[in-house]
Amino acid sequence: MKIDQTQPAQTQPAQTQPDPSLRHSDNSVPLDAIIIGAGFSGMYQLYCLRERLGMRARVLEAGHGVGGTWFWNRYPGARCDSESHSYMYYFSKDLIDEWEWSERYPQQPEILRYLNHVADRFHLRDDIQLDTRVQSARFDAHQQLWVVTTQQGAVFTARFLITAVGCLSSANIPNMPGLDSFGGNWFHTGQWPHEGVDFSGQRVGVIGTGSTGIQAIPVIAEQAAHLTVFQRTANYSIPARNAPLTPEFKQYAKQNSDEIRYTMNSNTNAHPFRIADRRAAQTEEADRQSIYEAAWKKGGLQFRATFDDLLLDEAANATAANFIREKILATVADPVKAEILSTIDHPFAAKRPPIDSFYFETYNRTNVDLIDLRATPIERITERGVQTSAGEVELDILVFATGFDAMTGSLLKIQIEGKNGRTLQEEWRAGPRTYLGLQTPGFPNLFTITGPGSPSVLCNLPPAIEQHVNWITDCIDHLRRENLNLIEANEDAANDWVEEVNAAANATLLAKVKHSWYLGANVPGKPQVFMPYAGGFARYIDICNRVTANHYEGFTRSR
User: Fold this and answer.
1) Which of 100, 145, 435, 504 has its CA 20 to 30 A from that of 309?
2) CB atoms within 10 A of CB 335
3) Strand (E) or helix (H) holding 429
4) Which of the residues in the chain have pLDDT under 70?
């Protein structure tokens, strides 16, 4: 059964009510801008264009509710791995003051409530069209407009087209032989039924132990009669140490929001903490172990911020990797399971580093089995379950926690045609080629929020989203003030930026992992190109600001 999925110093936008005259339902009237997607990116972009620039903008959203990734991802245990006080908008002081998170790491329902609150708080729904999946977008050079067609056949035109489709929103469902013959129900974590799934009394199999699987497995194990985990790649994970937020911390976060925002915008990963200015390779072993122990006890992604050379030096990284392996071995009672879980083939944090709530402890349950797919690979899906080289595992429910066609998948599902009939699929055949992750040559007035070539998935995303949206909004404002109609990335600038993205990755251990979804390795046939910018969020902001100050260097502007 398949479930269908039909800048640090930034002026605060004025908190005004939208002008009703800017809202319209006549598709024949050209819009100023069309935004694809109603998640964090799309809603803030709508707000900025409407409230700061007074533009007529419309969001087209495939789902029947706002929230983007958090509308679709409803799998058991779905939770943010950024701390709640950082995983939110910071453009509005009033919004910061009036919203309260309940936990250190919010669950999906709470994040979705927050995004719905934002939609209501700023009256965004009138300009968001739900249940509308964009099928194609074509640039009309004669009219200098983007022509957007939906699957329902509706046609919209606009001067600017802004994609806010998310980096992790196109589900990667493996093409496994025999899947159609499976007699039970199967689900992908990114296309989870909104009514939920009842695992009680069921024999469940989970394929995938990335960050999604690590969140889902402990929750499913509590409900299922029996759970079999199929692991291809062992993974590091840090305990989240999730807990309710204290009144004192809630007050601190509100009173220090300006400082928190500055910290996020002036460090490497846009989190509300800084990487310690010390090197693991130069720290005495006893002191280093003490630092790791304190970070392990505190929990969360701050563990990887204990030393500043963990992603630069293999020997330094090995100290953290070995520490975590020892924790796994000490936690998992069955020595066979412990060995499978701790035999990790990549440096710590060179792939997305998960955090968890009792993930490794789950393998101590009597109703949980672990299969090492490196030793006994899956041969096919059968009517009764999963056939590995060691035999058949009978299942009632199969869960794919196999991640996403990251960063490019959602964009390439849309037939986007730029100048001279060239499509984005053709332009990106050898891998995504952008300038700053914001534009692709040959596609005038098409902007991508947190696209390939930007820090995106290497960051806490809301600050990265705000920076991108603010830059795009300022750029459009500049064009209007200068009486210009078009802006397009130059070929040379895009080529130079691809080299810069590669150089930034090659300066770290990130590029050494050849089976990472950062390179698209989880999707068969996808070009193996390192996609996010690994030079750090603060450095990226400086580059974008410099481009702006140099009269949009690398872009061609015209009437």
Assistant:
1) 435
2) 9
3) none
4) 1-28, 168-171, 404-407, 517-524, 526-528
Ramachandran bin of 384, using left for φ above 0, alpha for ψ from -120 to 50, beta for the remaining angles: alpha
CATH of the domain at 100: 3.50.50.60
Q: What integer pLDDT is reported at residue 286 of this predicted model?
A: 98
What burial letters (b/e) apply to 241-260, b meaning 16+ CB within 10 Å?
Answer: ebeebeeebeeebbeebeeb
Q: How many CB atoms lie within 10 A of CB 216?
A: 22
Cα–Cα distance measured from residue 140 to residue 540, given in angstroms and rounded to the nearest whole number: 32
Together in a domain, 550 and 411: yes
Residues 50, 154: one domain?
Answer: yes
- Predicted local confidence at residue 2, as pLDDT: 38
Classified as helix, coil or strand, 484 is coil
**Are residues 181 and 34 both part of a single domain?**
no
Q: How many CB atoms lie within 10 A of CB 119?
A: 21
Length of the chain in residues, anyone? 559
Structure tokens at 48: 């900025």
The pTM assigned to this predicted structure is 0.92
469, 13 contact by CB (below 8 A): no
End-to-end CA separation in angstroms for the chain: 52
Query: How many other CB atoms sit within 10 Å of the CB of residue 76?
Result: 20
Residue 369 DSSP label: E
Q: Give the pLDDT score at 3.
A: 34
In sequence order, the 6+-apart residues with CB closer than 8 A to the CB of 294 are none
Identity of the amino acid at 420? N
Alpha-carbon torsion 488, 492, 493, 497, what sign? positive
Say whether both 392 and 378 belong to one domain: yes
pLDDT the model gives residue 14: 34
* Those residues with Cβ within 8 angstroms of residue 453's Cβ, 6 or more apart along the chain or in another chain: 432, 433, 434, 435, 436, 437, 438, 497, 498, 501, 531, 532, 533
Q: Which two tokens stand for residue 385?
A: 């379950």
- H/E stretch holding 487 reads strand 486-489
pLDDT computed for residue 170 by the predictor: 64
How far apart are alpha carbons 267 and 286 in whole angstroms?
28
Q: What is the model's pLDDT at position 216?
A: 97
Question: Is the domain of 120 the same as that of 184?
Answer: no
Residues 6+ apart with CB under 8 A from 327: 296, 360
Residue 301 is assigned to a structural domain of this protein: no
- Mark out the alpha helices in 449-509 (DSSP H runs): 461-481, 491-506
Q: What is the pLDDT of residue 74?
A: 93
pLDDT digits (tens, 9 = 90+) for 188-227: 998 899 999 999 999 999 999 999 999 999 999 999 999 9
| 274 belongs to a structural domain | no
Give the residue among 558, 489, 472 at the shortest CA–CA distance from 32: 472
Q: How many domains, the chain? A: 2
Crossing angle for the helix pair 40-47 and 461-481, to the nearest 10 degrees = 30
Count of beta carbons in the 10 Å neighbourhood of residue 513 = 18
Alpha helix (H) residue ranges in 285-372: 285-298, 314-331, 335-342, 359-362
